[in-house]
Every structure is written in C-alpha cells, then in structure tokens.
Fold this sequence. Notes:
Strand order of the largest sheet of chain A: 6-7-8-3-9-10
Strand content of chain A: 25-35%
Shape of chain A: globular
Number of helices of chain B: 11
Largest sheet of chain A: 6 strands, mixed
Oligomer: heterodimer
CATH architecture of chain A: 3-Layer(aba) Sandwich
Shape of chain B: globular
Amino acid sequence: MTTAIRVKGFSHFFGSAQTLKGIDLDVLRNEILGVVGPAGSGKSTFLGALNRMNDLVRGSRTEGAIEIDGKNIYDPDVNVAELRRKLGMVFATPVPLPRSIFENVVFGTRLAGSRGRASLVELVQDCLERTTLWEEVKDRLDASALKLSGGQQQRLCIARVLALRPDFILLDEPCSGLDPISTAKIEDSLRRLKEDYTIILVTNNTKQAARVADRTAFFLNGELIEVGPTDKIFTAPDDRRTDDYLRGRFG
Amino acid sequence: MRINPRLEQNAVKVVLMVLTATTVGILLFIIVFILRKGVPVLELSFLTRNPVDMGRGGGIFSTIVGTLVLTLVAVLIAAPLGVGTAIFLTEYTWENRVTRIIRFGADCLAGIPSIIFGLFGFILFVTKLRFGWSILSGGLTLAFMILPTIIRTSEEAIKSVPASYRQVSFSLGSTRWQMVARVVLPAALPGIVTGIILSIGRSIGETAAVIFTAGSALHLPTSIFSSSRTMAVHFYILAREGISMSNAYGTAAILVIFILIINLLTYYLMERFIRKYS
C-alpha cells in the first residue's frame, strides 16, 4: 500500500491552547483509518486539519506539515476550496441544506461550475446508489432534503461528498446520532467505498472502529499514542493507555 | 399572607386582558376615526387626479406618485448599502472593536429623530451638493434614515442562519462568496425582506425629513431633480394650513391603507419565514 497522506510533526493551536502535539502519521491509500480517543483528545481537530476546516475557527494556527502527493497543504499557494473538494467531509450531525435531495447531492458540483440538470442525473444516481439511498428516494428527488429521516440525511450527506469526486472521505463521528440499523447501513457503504476512496473515520464508538477500520489510531490529549492494524490495537497494543481506553477503564 | 393561587391567577389574567384591550382599543380608535373621516371623500378621481387649487380640489395622484418614487429611490440606495454592510459585519470580519463601533453607530443612528436627518439632508444635498429640493435629495435623506434599520434587521437575519450550513458549504469547496450567495442569503432572505418592508413603511409615513429635502411641489415629478410632495407631507400641509380638512382625511385614509397593506405583507412573509426555518 502506498502512502496517501503524510503528516509530519504537525501541531495545531487554538489561541494559546495546543490541541495537536507533533503528530507523525501516514495514511495509506484505500484503507479505512479509524481514529479513536476520549472527548478532547484532538481527533476531530486532526480531521479538520486535513481539509483545513480548522482555518475557519478564530485563532487557529499550525506548525509542521501535512503532505498530499508530496505537497504541503498548508503552503500559501494551495487552493483551499479545491483541497476541500478533494477531502470530502461528513459531519457528526447530518446537515442537509434547505433545498431538494437532487440539489443537495450536486451542491459541490455546482460550486465547481456545473449548470443544468441533464448532465448531473447520472452522477446523482451513482452517488445515491453507492450510499444505498437510491431505492428509497428515486421517486422524490425534488422533495426537500429536510424531510428525510436522520439516517437517510446522513447517507445523503455522504452521497453529497461522493459527488465531489474526492480522493478522501473524512467522517467525523458520522453515526453518533443514529440508530443501529442506520449505522449498519452506513458502515456497509463505507466497506464498499474503500475500493475507490481512502477513508478516515473519527469515532467515539470503539466497536465501530473494530468493525470497519483496517488500521486504528489512538489519540489522547492531542498526542498520537499509537497507530497500527486494528486487530493489533484492539488485542495487543504497545501502549498501556491504549489498552486502558479500549477496555473502558477511562473515557 | 399568600393569596389564594387561583384568585391570583384570575386577577393577573384580568389585568393583562384589560391592558391588551386598551392597546387594541386605542389602535382601533385611531384607524376607525381616520377611515370614517377619510373614506367618504374617497372616490376613484381622488386617486387619479392631481391636486387643484393647493389641494382644495382635485385628487392626490401626484402625491401618490411622489411617495412611491421617493420611497423607491430611498430603498434602492439603502437596501444594497445596508445588506452589504450586514454581510460584511457577519461574514467577512471577526467580531472586534471596529465592528462593535459600527454596530453601536447604527443603533445610535436608528434613534435619531427624523427631523435631524431632514436638516442634515437639507444642508448636504439641497444646498452643498446643489441637488435642490428634489426626489434625489429626499431619497438620499430617507435612505440614510432607514439604513440603520436595514443593517440591523439584515444582520439578525443573517446571524440566524445555522452555522452548520456555512460549515457544510465550505466543506463542499465553496469560496466565502459562494457560501454567502448560495447558502446564507437565500436562507436569510425572508428576514432581510421583512426589514426592508418595515423600512418602506417608515419612509412612506415620513414628513419631517422629506419636507426639508424633497420640498412640497404639487405637480407630477418629471425627473429625480424635481421637487415632489408625498402623501404624508400633503396631509400635513392641508391640515396645518387649514386648506381642506376633508381632503386631508382622505389622504390620511389612503396613507393608512397603504401602511396596512405593507404590514399585512410583512406578517405574511414573517410567517412563511418562521414556518420554513424553525
């Protein structure tokens, strides 16, 4: 497997608080990397650093480098809008925009300049099929996306990200508000999606990481404690703190 | 000693009902009074003919046109300025000393009596810039008068758009302007429009600022440099100089009906806004 993202000595600060401390981590192509850790461990900040969503928070500052295809994404000449299309992000709470299902899926495509509808129909069908939503909504693509159930909304949000034709999918606790059946459907989609995408899955649910992640990274207090194959992390981690967390001794 | 809770409940209810009834009663009294005095004067020719003999005879057509044109000029100037300022304050800058000063200034400006705006407009537009008493001077003055309201209502409308919409828009690769134009403004539009309509109501009813800057010519305006009389000013002059009380009430009735229509429109929009975004 080749390296897709190389994080080198990366630190992040909000004002005077350091939220990530010298992270060194390689993300491999076409893997699902699970990121686990207690609240406040920096896992969401890590995700936000990868597509520079952290830039939007006042007082955000970084050190070190994150390289994609050998290029540091924090270089001044990087087009941030393009970068974010390349690393599509799914948030904890599904946020459909107040428009139709169809227009939600093509929102990013339209930002990049697509007009009309005919040329986008195939894209919409493809993205909705990949998230197993197509059968449920194919007859009401023009209905408001706000009317969908929570689980459907989250799959719509994933479809919306797929429509960007990204290289990476970043998921920030995508199932935290969902029932077990919706969660299973999303995990199912993720397993199929890794054929074509590199996926980074931040989750509070360690069992979810055990179920779908190829490798798992454990964060604590802004530090990367260890990263390795999921089996190893869950059965024989190198660091005691990893073991304690995964066994529920603290959290 | 504590009074019987049930009695207390009823007493409070009665007091609040009396207060409400008084408010509604006063409002109804004013509206009914003006309509009863004014409606008998109203006939189609009152709307379609220009005033004759200083307003003793004829209709009020030119003042209706004057009111609409003046308000239109004011809104065309104030709406882009106000909404633009609101967008800048909410989306393009962090909260800091400067934004607080701008906001404080807008709040102060909103509380300044309109006659002061009139005096300012007279000095700046009518005399210094030599626009004379004209629709342009009056429109600019009214624009400054309603600007703070438009800024503040637009700002509130924009702020009420969920932060998550902005986050999602950015994460899908939008530039800041795309985010504003495609996500924030459509969601905030009903609120912004409501603010603009309220401002329209204020400019339609304004006299002091207008009389100083647009003058009170009775003929139909021919350009934005024409002096013009609005309905509110017409009413003021007819009543103040005792020219024709019946025509004054007729004008007042039309003015009230105008404002009623605008407020109904506002309520309709607000209701749709609340239904759609809550």
